[in-house]
Amino acid sequence: MSKLGDLGAKLYRGEVGYDFVGKRFLWYGVSILITITAIVALAVQGLNMGIEFKGGAVFTTPKTGLSVAKVTEAAEEASGHDAIVQELGTGGMRIQISGLDTDAATDVKKVLATDLKVTEADINADLVGPSWGEQIANKAWTGLGVFMVLVVIYLAIAFEWRMAVAALIALIHDLTITVGVYALVGFEVTPGTVIGLLTILGYSLYDTVVVFDGLKEGSKDITKQTRYTFSEIANRSINGTLVRSINTTVVALLPVAALLFIGGGFLGAGMLNDISLSLFVGLAAGAYSSIFIATPLVVDLKEREPAMKALKKRVLAKRAAAAAKGESPDEAEVSDGEPQVVSQGRQPGRRR
Amino acid sequence: MAAPKKGRRPTGAQGRPGRALAIILIAMVALTAGMFISKQTTPRLGIDLAGGTSITLKAKSEPGKENAVNETNMNTAVGIIERRVNGLGVSEAEVQTQGRDHIIVNIPKGMNEKQAREQVGTTAQLYFRPVIAFADGAPAAPEGTQSPSPSASGSGAPKAQDGKTSPSATPSSSATSQGRALSEGLKAPNAPTPTPSASESKKADDKAAPSPSASAPAPDPAAADLQAKFAALDCTNEEQRAAVGKGVKPTDPTLACGQRGEQWGKWILGPAAVEGKDVKSAKGEIDPQSGQWIVTMNFNDHGADAFAKVTGELAAKQMPQNQFAIVLDGDVISDPSVSTAITGGNAQISGGFNQQSAQDLGNMLSYGALPLSFQEDSVTTVTAALGGEQLRAGLIAGAIGLLLVVVYLLVYYRGLAFIAIVSLLVSAILTYTIMALLGKGIGFALNLPAVCGAIVAIGITADSFIVYFERIRDEIREGRTLRPAVERAWPRARRTILVSDFVSFLAAAVLFIVTVGKVQGFAFTLGLTTLLDVVVVFLFTKPVMTLLARTKFFASGHPWSGLDPKRLGAKPPLRSSRRTAAPAPVEAKEA
């Protein structure tokens, strides 16, 4: 079995593990830093809004044999507006003209066809009124709001409100990072990007839900034992589901990466590229946040509960007593996620 | 883990893997058969993959008529646009509402995109208004001002025309739109009328000044104001043209611009005499007597009365006041003259039409009166070549993505991966057949974002298998043998899968409801594949796992099965090897 498999076994048994919960403030710090960077980038640089948000036209021509500069000149001449021209993998040209009226665009297309010596019927045109992108964005905001409310309600029912809150914070975190990356790198924002962004919603939560599920299971009868505090259980849950999280993320990223590669390589730009780019960034951020942010946040919220405080006290007291007897409490290992079994006193881990 | 919980008996389908498998097999066969029977073996492709033009229209809510954008009016508009587009001879065009105020018009390749756009775009209110005055479109001294203004506003069309044709109104071009005569249909005594009116109005044309002021009838200040505006109006200027007549009630006189042949003309028009909705039908056809193209109109009762009245009044007047203008969305599209009162509700317009212009006018007259006005939000024209390329790119990306996932699964899960791969395959077959059938069923068209959604869904679907597999492996690490491990892992994995799929589905559903156009395609596939994921995991992956757990290869934890307890670092079996005695050497016990 692969290295990851061995690691999985060790993680599962708690032989190795990273103290996600203990070092949470480090990761909170990292996230806050990233988030601030993202917000600053957004404020300073702003987003590079695509033609869909400004109104204009995108023409895609078949192979022309002309240089980009030539085509740019021709396009600006024909339209009277600034044009951005990009050569595609196919040898064709992608001509973006912002501010062009949808009515006038038809004539520009005709002129372009003559200038570039291609038939008009071979030119693809994407004409967008100035309010189109805005409408998509507005609907996206509505969607975002509706989704967040629904998902918080659902998670509060399926899990508990603390997890719902943590998941929501992680989600906002992911979205902020994604938007920040767009502002920082200057990727163009198109309706495709917005689609990708909205899809992150569901996807980023998928990972979080997987981890929370493990946590919920691990902490089911937590108050009936005195071996572990909630933080420790949570950390074990994260470590126990780490391989699962890594695998689900990798498997989710692979098709998106293929899309990104093909979309970027083949078609130069367009829907495929836009969707997959924002998905890729968002998915990566989502995987990170579900492990480093969401669960530690649940811990912070949960440890405030009186029951958990009491538990912590009991656990620490017991450990102190054990230490007094000369027995190292660290030797005790939990065999699986269910503490009540452990408390029955079996410690099969030692029989290795 | 000692015995107490062992008794969590599997229920329903879990206990009878054969039945679950039979259900999904029947479903697959039925869907595939349905696909072949309905001859719908491929999903219908959207415009961006098959080529064609897609137009997104948004209903404008006008001041004072905010409530006009409602379902009834939207549906009426869809009906009218549909008739219009299909009136161009395209039966494939589809028109549908999306969201509250959008209409999507998809026109497949192979038809005149420009013409279609015009037909769809002229989503106008149609009125018949009597002409009070007419003049050439530009104000006095037009040559100097004309050419820069259109280019500044970014319009290509007027520029080309102004440059070439405005100095001299060539008789041939003006004859095409001028001098049209209106006569009573069916009786068709139309022969003499076109000629005189044509020559007369050409004269008016050539003067190129706001000359017909002679006709201004009123000392009324409103009329004088209108006169002044009329004199200043420059119909060759796009902005002025767009602004003219806006917000004027049909019952008030108004100014209007219109193209006569290659040139712009401007009009003062009286209150609307007949509304477009009173036109029952209209079409361009060849007049059997003259062999010329004409446009025939048929009014409803209300329209017939109003029309008889107004034509009676007009017929008594002098040029140009014996004309009335057919005004579509503020533009004069025709201005025939009237020589007699036309009663009975049938009329025809003759003079200077060709087939195209007659049919266009006929279409506009019949379908002109939309209850709403629309703006073009986006127009996408995709050539078949690019469409094919995009489809190919999508398919290649899908294949590569699938391959990467399969390789990863194989490396990591070995034998288990085959279960995942076959499950993915089942999911793919279900998705494909359902998409193909939905093409016919609900008009679902596979567009590029939908392909994207399907590719992204590979990951989501595979994730469910991973969740389950990891669960099983956890149980094996506990020291369980495979069969109990498979059953014990299921309820837990099931919950995780259901919860996370529910969240995915929720995202897809919200996306589908609140968005428009392409985004919907994406959301739709994502939602569909998420649902199918649940179906496949429940009815296929789990039962197959149960069955395979009985085979020696998997149950013995063969190194290539992906379930080798030794490699998983399992603890020695919890219970004495009551079961292991049968199939497998006690490999699991490593000590």
Core attributes:
heterodimer; A: 352 residues; alpha+beta; Multidrug efflux transporter AcrB transmembrane fold; four-stranded antiparallel beta sheet; two-stranded parallel ribbon; 67% helix; elongated; B: 591 residues; Alpha-Beta Plaits; 3 domains; five-stranded mixed barrel; 20 helices; 15 strands; 50% helix; 16% strand; disordered C terminus
Give a written overview of the molecule:
- The complex is a heterodimer of chains A (352) and B (591).
- Chain A has 352 residues and is an alpha+beta fold.
- Chain A folds into two domains: 3-49 and 132-306, Multidrug efflux transporter AcrB transmembrane domain (Multidrug efflux transporter AcrB transmembrane fold); 56-128, Alpha-Beta Plaits.
- Chain A is 67% helix and 7% strand.
- Chain A has helices at 3-13, 24-44, 51-54, 68-79, 102-116, 132-158, 161-185, 191-218, 230-240, 242-267, 271-302, 306-325, 339-342; strands at residues 48-49, 56-60, 83-87, 93-98, 124-128, 188-189.
- In chain A, strands 3-4-2-5 form a four-stranded antiparallel beta sheet.
- In chain A, a hairpin with a 5-residue loop joins strand 3 and strand 4 (93-98).
- Chain A is elongated, with a radius of gyration of 27 Å.
- The two termini of chain A are 19 Å apart.
- The model of chain A is unreliable at 329-352 (pLDDT under 50).
- Chain B has 591 residues and is of the alpha+beta class.
- Chain B folds into three domains: 12-46 and 384-568, Multidrug efflux transporter AcrB transmembrane domain (Multidrug efflux transporter AcrB transmembrane fold, Up-down Bundle); 52-123, Alpha-Beta Plaits; 124-161 and 169-363, no CATH class.
- Chain B has helices at 17-37, 47-50, 71-86, 113-121, 142-146, 148-152, 156-165, 171-177, 194-207, 221-232, 238-243, 301-315, 355-367, 384-413, 415-441, 448-477, 482-514, 518-548, 552-555, 565-568; strands at residues 52-60, 94-98, 102-108, 126-136, 181-184, 254-260, 263-269, 274-275, 279-286, 293-299, 324-328, 331-334, 337-338, 346-353, 373-382.
- Chain B has a five-stranded mixed beta barrel, surrounded by five helices. Chain B has a five-stranded mixed beta sheet with strand order 9-10-14-5-13.
- In chain B, a hairpin with a 2-residue loop joins strand 11 (324-328) and strand 12.
- Chain B is elongated, with a radius of gyration of 36 Å.
- Chain B starts with 16 loop residues before the first helix and ends in a 23-residue tail after the last helix.
- The model of chain B is unreliable at 1-14, 141-178, 186-218 and 576-591 (pLDDT under 50).
- The interface between A and B is large, with 106 and 91 residues.
